[in-house]
Amino acid sequence: MLPDADAAITRDGKALILAYDHGIEHGPVDFEPNPETADPERVFDLATHDAVTALAVGKGVAEAYYPSYDDDVSLLAKLNGTSNLWMGEPDSAVNWSVEYAAELGADAIGFTLYGGSNNEVEMAEEFRDAQEAARANDMGVVMWSYPRGQGLKNDTSPDTIAYAARLGLELGADIAKVKYPGSPEAMGEAARMAGPTKVVMSGGSKTDDRAFLETVAGAIDGGAKGLAVGRNVFQRENPEEILGALEAVIFEEASVDEALELTSASAVADD
Amino acid sequence: MLPDADAAITRDGKALILAYDHGIEHGPVDFEPNPETADPERVFDLATHDAVTALAVGKGVAEAYYPSYDDDVSLLAKLNGTSNLWMGEPDSAVNWSVEYAAELGADAIGFTLYGGSNNEVEMAEEFRDAQEAARANDMGVVMWSYPRGQGLKNDTSPDTIAYAARLGLELGADIAKVKYPGSPEAMGEAARMAGPTKVVMSGGSKTDDRAFLETVAGAIDGGAKGLAVGRNVFQRENPEEILGALEAVIFEEASVDEALELTSASAVADD
Amino acid sequence: MLPDADAAITRDGKALILAYDHGIEHGPVDFEPNPETADPERVFDLATHDAVTALAVGKGVAEAYYPSYDDDVSLLAKLNGTSNLWMGEPDSAVNWSVEYAAELGADAIGFTLYGGSNNEVEMAEEFRDAQEAARANDMGVVMWSYPRGQGLKNDTSPDTIAYAARLGLELGADIAKVKYPGSPEAMGEAARMAGPTKVVMSGGSKTDDRAFLETVAGAIDGGAKGLAVGRNVFQRENPEEILGALEAVIFEEASVDEALELTSASAVADD
Amino acid sequence: MLPDADAAITRDGKALILAYDHGIEHGPVDFEPNPETADPERVFDLATHDAVTALAVGKGVAEAYYPSYDDDVSLLAKLNGTSNLWMGEPDSAVNWSVEYAAELGADAIGFTLYGGSNNEVEMAEEFRDAQEAARANDMGVVMWSYPRGQGLKNDTSPDTIAYAARLGLELGADIAKVKYPGSPEAMGEAARMAGPTKVVMSGGSKTDDRAFLETVAGAIDGGAKGLAVGRNVFQRENPEEILGALEAVIFEEASVDEALELTSASAVADD
Amino acid sequence: MLPDADAAITRDGKALILAYDHGIEHGPVDFEPNPETADPERVFDLATHDAVTALAVGKGVAEAYYPSYDDDVSLLAKLNGTSNLWMGEPDSAVNWSVEYAAELGADAIGFTLYGGSNNEVEMAEEFRDAQEAARANDMGVVMWSYPRGQGLKNDTSPDTIAYAARLGLELGADIAKVKYPGSPEAMGEAARMAGPTKVVMSGGSKTDDRAFLETVAGAIDGGAKGLAVGRNVFQRENPEEILGALEAVIFEEASVDEALELTSASAVADD
Question: Does D82 reach chain E within 8 Å, measured CB to CB?
Fold first, then answer.
């Protein structure tokens, strides 16, 4: 963790990362609830919303779309990822070199580490190379710290998530993206373990507005520094509305009730 | 996917790739129906047909023949491939460096990815290196996206083919070559999932003219941007005829009936 | 072992290394007895104590905190380490390149070797690269020489610890950190086997002051050149007190009784 | 396959390669029938015979002897090879870099590929590196194309040998050395599959003069471009005689009867 | 094998290598019969004896002691070695780069190859890199050629040792160190198989003076070019005496009886 290395993908020290790596990780099935979400252009448009501090995509998507959004979107280059056509011990291919990500204008790199996997050692060494190359290119570093493997039954227990957050600090991430450990207190403990590394909560699957915002608000109160979200935003019919509400909760200290009021207002007004 | 990176191997945004990697993938058995097809010169001659936008061959064949066809054929360097003498979990050797392919004058690279194989992670990382080297050499990138492995029973289901096409986009291919998923609708869905990455249908084994052209026409109508074909062309006695018909269907919006009429005309007239 | 290569992390030829790699090796559970110890700043403050000749931390912790302590703390860059979420045959990821450690101002590198593990050969070769890069950067080399693996039942027997110490010499470490083999005599034998490579005893888990100091004093008398300690210092309420006592025993030839008297005096006076 | 790349190890488009890699592949047992054959000098002397277009040896033998024969022998650097002390799935160590072979004055490289082995992918990639390095150093490329592995029962069937020959072409060999598939027709089919890549027949174990020459003559008539031979020459008492006869059959279109007459003449007269 | 590459570690074409890699290969147990032998300085002193043409040690020992003996001892850098804490299929870690060995002033490299091990292919490729780097640095190459592995029952049979010696020649060693195959005749056969590569016999465990000298004399008569010895020298109370006797047998054509007379004379007189 280097102070300010994540400045280009944060706002007032907090982050709202729009994650769009479902096409590789899960495939088209994730776009079925709202078929338009298969179109990256729609998600890039969403990422221009003021609430969004960074958009996480893979190399091919960035090649095709980022040149048109260079001025309006901060690019978080998700370096590794693997299809779920394959079902072995958790692992992830490094599909993108840091040097090429820098060439395309990326502001930061994103990297998944499956702590506890039989592939943890190899993945950690790949992360090392990526992290140090990011430093050489003045890019921030975000770790998807997701303990997973044959030795891990419940990968969202408070202890596991706190360990995951700490790994972010120890290994040199500026931001650690972790699963929600079930309570604001547990999220706070994870944030405390990560020290100066910012912990952002992973958005998980789609829920209703109030439940989602309350979880996010609780996480922020607990000590999380933001949210990384995908389906919970882009699968909605009016994703701008929820972005406006999230902006209020994360960056403007609004209550959930105040934020919910925004969801009936025009999302366009937020832009 | 980089806009226009595949310009040298497409025509009006569509592709008809003549694939000739059977000698390594299947061995001489594929030439038995028409023994003359073992001779690469015959296939290079075919590739000079106007219908053909690129010829995919391995390194040794390119070394021997491409210098004589440099002006008339666009070379798609098929980088990886493996004999079927070996029968383990799907994998493919990288037999050709991008740098040497560029030196020989190749216009694009071709690379097989067996998504779902236990070797997917390693293959994806080899693809990464090849894709980025292709970018550095201004060459287009074609992925043979062929899900295959112990976790995959039916590798031509619409869901699998749509996922295969999407992997082409996510990982940075300009063109994704996929198996035919059984219907024009399913091919269209695959094309939609690939967004700006062009999806071309794989030609499969030899069928009669009408059945073949109808499948191709349906795929094009569905959204495919062309065809990659091997045996279905070069095993015929008059392969120029079917190339003429394919040209009509793919590039000239001809109906299957109109195209079939060409198969009785002189193929030479097409050149 | 190169004469004087460890000068920056020793004092009069002896070492008291404060080790703080528990966040990666064991996770937050190691901080539970004293939750404040999760905060690296507290440990960096401790490391400014005169008794401490070097602080061993991982890359991310060093990135965040070392710039503020550059003048007052000697940095021992602990290069490898792995979470205990993973439970395979002992192995350790190299999380930090020597070059980047040098860039951050590290004075020496620390590296774990699990002799006897099925991964011994690979780890030894990683150590080779790190050791030679340390030489090129004028940094000292400390080996955590910890025999461990399926072939090793009791990894603190005198024979095993003597072998561990000898491996430090043979492979080129300036300092070998080994477990306490149970008696001052066995520690002395280990030190004799390491020849000019300094052997420091690993602090182990927390015990009471007298027992701890007597073990350390015995080890020093036996021939050990110091101590590497973590929990036994930082988990205490007044860690400065025990550091003062250790300083007396290790560097000032004080008896245990004399040193224990210091534990009631102000640790601040030692600074 | 690059036209003329093998000019230094062929004569009128044909090759008689003297292979002397038995010391590594089989060990001293291969020298027992004629103990003098253990002495490389004797084989280098033989290789000065006009009939021999290249001598294939390993690195250590070349280092010791080739400087004295530089003017009179064309060196085929056999890059890989492995002892038969080891009995796992077929594999071969790369014992010699192309760069060092070039430095020693080698005219071409030789490389074994065990198609069908579980190690085929790795071996093919090692061949790629060697082949491209040979191109960069203007050296010819000879593949020992020997299908072998757990999936292959009969490795000299016509289909397997034809596939082996084709792999030589596809992967970029100038010459493919294959086992004799049992008949001149099968050898001709293999040669046809290899196209411009020259197919040479592997000499096999020692037989009587007429049988040997008839097999060679048949292979040449079938389409083979020569012979690679070891024991069948150097284990004889008067190896120059059989070299003279082979020269007649391979390069001078002599009948077997005519060639056999030479075996009673002085071999010295051939030099 | 390059003529004269081993000049710095031989005398009149013969070698007496003092090997001192027991600390890594076997651990302190090898020093127990004579505890002073744990001290490398004692062995470096021994190596200044005129009889000794080279001293083989690991990197860490060389770093610490060789600078003081640079003028009086020829350094044979033993590059690989592994503890016997590990008990898998024979393998050996490369603990020392050739470049760093050259920087420390080494005259030659030593490298163990376990022919017949499942790791033979990998070890041979590591040997290749080391051997060629040695050539680039004008250093001699000594192979510890020790067939060992699951396929090998009796690793000192004449056939196995002859094969081991031949591997030294084939792979490019200047000197091959092999186990004693049981008789002078078998040693001679091994030497003959190695051709210009010098074969030296490995000293084995400690025996009485006459038996040891007779074995050595027989080996030399048989064709061996010297001896590599460790425990059989340094475990003795007066190791200089036996060195004097070995010098007489190996370099001065003395009979065993003549040599034995020297063992009662002052070894100091030999210096």
Answer: yes
